[in-house]
Amino acid sequence: MAALYPPFKRRLPLIISAGLLLTHSALAASEEPALIESIKWRCLPAVGTQNWVCEQTSGKPVPTPASVTPSDTGAAAAASASAIDGEAVVAAPISQQLKASQLRSTLDWVPLAQLSAEQRSSVPPHCSGRYLEPEREGTEFKGIPFAAPIRAESDKSDYQAGELATFEGNVLVSQGYRQVSSDEARLYEQTLTAEFDGNVVLREPNLLIVGDKARVQTQTGRMEADQVVFALHASRTRGGAVELVRREDGVIDLVDASYTTCPPADNSWALSGSEVSISPESGFGSAKHAVLRIKDVPVFYTPYILFPIDDRRQSGFLYPQLGYSSETGTDLIAPYYLNLAPNFDATITPRLQTKRGASLESEFRYLTENSNGEIGSAFLPSDNLKDENRNYDDDRWLFNYQHEHQLASRWDATLDFTNASDKDYMRDFGTGLDVTSTDNLNQQFETRYRGGDDDLFWSLRANLQSFKNMRQDKDDPYEKLPQLEIKGGWNASQQLSFSWLADGTYFSRDDNWKYIGKTAEADKNEFDKRYDVERSIYGEGINEITNANGTRVYAEAGSSYRWQWPFAYVEPTIKGKSIHYRLNNLDRAAFNDPTTNPNGLSYDTSPTTTTPMLSLDSGLYFDRSANYFGGSYTHTLEPRLFYLYVPEQEDQEQNPLFDTGQYNFTYESLWREDRFSGYDRLGDANQVSLGTTTRLLDGTGFETFRFAIGQTYYFRDREVLVDPYYGQTQNEDGAESDFTQGRQWAIDEAEASASPIATELVWNLSKASSIRQDWIYNVDQSWNQDYRAAYHYSPDPSRMLDIAYNYKKRADRTKKDDDGNAIPGQFTDGSISQSDISAIWPLYGDWSLLGRWNHDLTNNKNLEVLAGTEYDSCCYKVRFLVRQYLNGSSDDIENADTENAFVLQFVLKGLGGFGTNTQALYGIKGYKEHDKSTNLQ
User: What are phi and psi of 219, to 5 degrees?
Assistant: First the structure.
């Protein structure tokens, strides 16, 4: 290196008063990697003269540098004060840094192999390195840059008092955390400007600019540069331009520029424009006459585009979505996001389906100090799809409004309202709106007030709720207009507590509420006949008693006392429960007709049911230290006994079923005090449930293994039942289940001396791998009633495997011919037996496999098949998937149509995407977490 820098070439520090150079936005820079002799100088005004005297403070002895003349005494004094401190006059030499020509291609990009373990931990997935600014003086500066002393150094300098300072050879000018280096520099004192020529490198934290020339207005901070490349380190973006202007407000304007988030030397994608503007302050950029290039091939043009440079919210296009299916044709969606304010935003989504037409979906969200919510809508004028579309030529629409409001510290209110044009809307279109239910669209307003304290507490709730039934083969649910509920409790002591609840609700339903079945072939209209469409029909039903409207008042009150020890607990509870009705819409003549009233119920518009309830809950707890599989654990054994007594209350058939059904039997059912959801039935009971749970806990308390088993033993038959097919009608052409068989099973279960055996097993093989099994075995019928087993493996978001099997015993279904018509008296197995396998797995390099196979083993039919690949790099992601699925009711699987579709998505990290809404990729478990972890931009 001595040949390049002989001893007579020395670096001359020149101290210039604050405000002469780079006041607002001079940018930091780095220079050549060549080693330069570390020679430092201290320059002080000579006493009684206008000259400076400089002396070497380190390095080899060299001749005294030429004198320079300060512009005026004040400037000299300021320089002197800085020089006396010793810190400001000493400028670190440029060493171990890349040449400007090399920085043009690397832009501070450091490969993974050269990073420390800590630095590698911050590298995004699928990236081969990261931008890392080299160490330099000033990076730790935290103050205001233009208030800091300015340092300039070079191999050679000249100064004309009050006019011009020139520097040649390895020029380095810095102020605070900002730095500029070049081959030559000229500082104009009168105009407060600076010019840099040759291998210009400008740096400040998070920004690097390399150019041929640069001009800086030191008072305003405006900077201009030619033939530049740049990098924004924090947002992992880079680009280049013929001209660059850094405005006074920090916005960077570029002419004939390009922009990408790909690493240096990677041209996977780039956005170029005649005029590009980048604002680190707001977090977005814009481009005029923008061209998107993939591998240098232009693929898209727009006269104007707005794009993000970080993860802050901003207006602009979201991922355009492209897909195809045999039902909709080509499907193109182009959502546009509007960042209206920090607490308001909106999304407008035009959509074109070639077989249906153009539609528009919009969503507006808001957040205030006491409330939040969203309003959404979708509209398709005149559905163009003719084949097998019962809504052909109709306007299709959806509306959704959700609102939460904190009226006071203890008082809140919520609104959830959704409506649609027809029952097929969700099946045909789906929605990106936040709809809480798709089978029954919720239309609800609720407000609640909470009072009291931890010992004496209560709440008052008012509710208005109706539903829009979206099922073609189910009854409309009852509406609650209105519902008032008050409940509370009192913890009189640590052992003694009291509770109470009162609920009053008015239930109503339209006359045309009851689902009867599908139209027979002879009853179909011309459209249904042409496309073989099955249309649901409704009526008032057979039994007028089930079509009751009216008021139901439910009340309960109780008390419990708990004895608690480290090894056991005992808790008896006593309650009283009562139901009162006031009904209307009953037809007195129907009660006198044995056809409509086969049970001979009397006409009663005010049925009442009241019953006491007594329960005793108790349990033991044992634990011991144990060693299994080479590990140390705490092994627990937790037996439990629960006794329940509720005397039978007769004539509950008189009570309508407004919102009540029977719970599915699970392990948790052993410890419930009622078999029914809702308040329309008070189940009788005289039974004891016995169960035990055993666990293995590691040293941190993590549950490695859990197994529970239990059974209920009955001392008398259950007399209060609910028809498993309540609200359904069996006829020759529409029956989906063997009602006779299903009802007999319900009777057999009520007369059994013991419940099925319920078990659950959870085995966490590791933090990443687990097995779960739920098994219900009916000992009375000697069959598996419910069974589910699942294995889940996910060591990290890039790989996931989920294998599940689900079985549920159900009554036989009606057998149908090739035309979909029921065959009288012939049935087939109606049990559910399904396997479901989904996976995300790396294949090679940045390629991953995505797939799901959901198969109905009972009918030997694929419910969902999804297969595809995903390529994920540091700056873009591509997915391609092929999908086959059944489009129809799960209760009518023989006649469900098989649809085919493909999905293509191309995501440009840091810019946007081009593809389709994958809807969490149609049920692949863990995909949302996977997608989020690999798209950190």
Answer: -80, -40
Three-class secondary structure of residue 916 per DSSP: coil
Average pLDDT over all residues of the chain? 80
Cα–Cα distance for residue pair 406/393, rounded to 1 Å? 44
Is residue 482 reached through a cis peptide bond, with omega within 30 degrees of 0 on the bond before it? yes
Instruction: Determine the average pLDDT of the residues in 488-502.
Output: 97
Contact 863, 836 (CB under 8 A): no
Question: Is the separation of the CB atoms in 129 and 262 below 8 Å?
Answer: no
Residue entry with tokens 């249309």: 535
Q: How many CA atoms lie within 13 A of 148 on its CB side?
A: 24
DSSP label at residue 896: P
User: What is the Cα–Cα distance from 807 to 784, expressed in whole angstroms?
Assistant: 8
Q: What is the pLDDT of residues 611-632, one digit of tens each?
A: 999 999 999 999 999 998 888 9
- Structural tokens at position 847: 């390629």
pLDDT in tens, 418-469: 999 998 898 888 887 878 778 889 999 999 999 999 999 999 999 999 999 8
For residues 489 and 156, what is the distance between their CA atoms, to the nearest angstrom?
A: 87
Which 8-state DSSP code applies to residue 588?
H
Sequence-distant (≥ 6) Cβ neighbours of residue 259 within 8 angstroms:
237, 238, 239, 270, 271, 272, 273, 276, 278, 285, 287, 307
Helix, coil or strand: residue 108: coil
- Please tell me the predicted confidence (pLDDT) of residue 926: 67
Answer left, alpha or beta for residue 923, where phi above 0 means left and psi between -120 and 50 means alpha: left
More confident residue, 906 or 502: 502
Residues 6+ apart with CB under 8 A from 589: none
Q: What DSSP element (H or E) covers 573?
A: strand 568-584
CB atoms within 10 A of CB 594: 9
Rounded distance between C-alpha atoms, residue 143 and residue 147, angstroms: 8
Q: Which residue has the higher pLDDT, 82 or 361?
A: 361
Look-up of token digits 């440009």: 908
Query: What is the model's pLDDT at position 404?
Result: 96
The mean pLDDT value for 737-745 works out to 82
CA atoms of 3 and 285, how far apart (whole Å): 47
Taking the C-alpha atoms of residue 182 and residue 186, their distance in angstroms, rounded to an integer, is 11
Q: What's the pLDDT band for 931 if we cut at 50, 70, 90?
A: low
Confidence (pLDDT) at 472: 77
By C-alpha distance, which of 586, 508, 509, 582 is closest to 552?
582
Contact 881, 866 (CB under 8 A): yes
Residue-range domain boundaries for the chain: 12-234, 832-933
Give the C-alpha separation, 564 to 478, whole Å. Answer: 43
Strand partners, 551: 506, 582
Q: Tokens 């008072």, residue?
A: 219
The residues with which 241 forms a beta bridge, in sequence order, are 228, 257
> Tell me, what's the pLDDT at 438?
80
Q: What is the pLDDT of residues 279-306, one digit of tens each?
A: 877 777 888 998 888 888 888 888 887 7
Contact 602, 561 (CB under 8 A): no
Q: Which of 104-108, 133-137, 733-737, 749-753 has the highest mean pLDDT?
A: 749-753
Question: Are 425 and 396 within 8 A, CB to CB?
Answer: yes
Indicate whether 782 pLDDT > 60. yes
Residue 365 phi, psi dihedral angles, 5° rounding: -120, 150
- Alpha helices, DSSP H, located in 521-586: 526-531
Which among 900, 912, 911 is positioned nearest to 324, based on CA atoms?
900
How far apart, in Å, do the first and last CA atoms of the chain sit? 43
What percent of the chain is predicted at pLDDT more than 90?
A: 37
Cβ burial of 394 (10 Å; 0-12, 13-18, 19+) is middle
